[in-house]
Design brief:
It is built from 6 helices and 2 strands. The chain is an all-alpha fold and 185 residues long. Strands 1-2 form a two-stranded antiparallel ribbon. Helix 2 runs antiparallel to helix 3 and helix 4 packs antiparallel against helix 5. It is globular and about 55 Å long.
Length: 185
């Protein structure tokens, strides 16, 4: 017995044109007309400027704190180190705000500097919390309390986490104005 032949289906040719196809994502550099190397160089410049401003802020923080607490053996706030640290952080925050505003993110102009500074302060408080969280995790969860473990968790790991967070937050929420060259056009 022979079985009846099954019809063979032949795939139909598509009559769709290129216009019917969904648009493919276009690389951002193709949209802006900016070469990829220029984008990478710009990102590296901005990242390096951010790190330099942060290093200056660190020096201002440490210098202010040490001047208030240890100037001449016993500084004016020798017996009040926490208020001295708060003052030092506040001074460093002002310095880094202007460094980041005018240099790191200087290409982005804003029409609301009060909003910008308020967000800057809020994100700095969050970043300080992240640093303290790293130290607290090391101390109270992992039960590590040596000077080495405190410096690794609070200063090294905490600072890295805080710096990455600050860079992201400043770029995404704080310094969000139009690029200066677009405003002039």
């Amino acid at each position: 017995m022979s079985s009846p032949e099954q019809p063979v289906s032949v795939p139909e040719r598509s009559t769709r044109s290129a216009q019917d196809e969904p648009a493919r994502p276009v690389p951002e550099s193709a949209v802006t007309g900016e070469p990829l190397t220029a984008k990478v160089a710009g990102a590296l410049r901005k990242g390096a400027a951010f790190l330099v401003v942060g290093a200056i802020g660190f020096l201002v923080d440490a210098g202010t704190y040490n001047a208030l607490v240890f100037w001449g053996g016993e500084g004016v706030l020798y017996h009040s180190p926490l208020p001295a640290k708060i003052i030092a952080i506040a001074v460093a925050t002002v310095v880094t705000y202007f460094g980041n505003k005018w240099w790191t993110f200087g290409h982005q102009q804003t029409d609301n500097p009060a909003r910008e500074y308020l967000l800057y302060a809020v994100f700095n408080v969050i970043a300080i919390g992240l640093q303290l969280g790293c130290l607290g995790f090391s101390r109270y969860v992992l039960d590590l309390s040596s000077p080495l473990s405190d410096n690794i968790s609070g200063t090294l790991v905490g600072q890295i986490v805080a710096v990455v967070f600050r860079y992201w937050a400043y770029d995404k929420f704080v310094f969000t104005g139009e690029p200066a060259n677009k405003q002039q056009q």
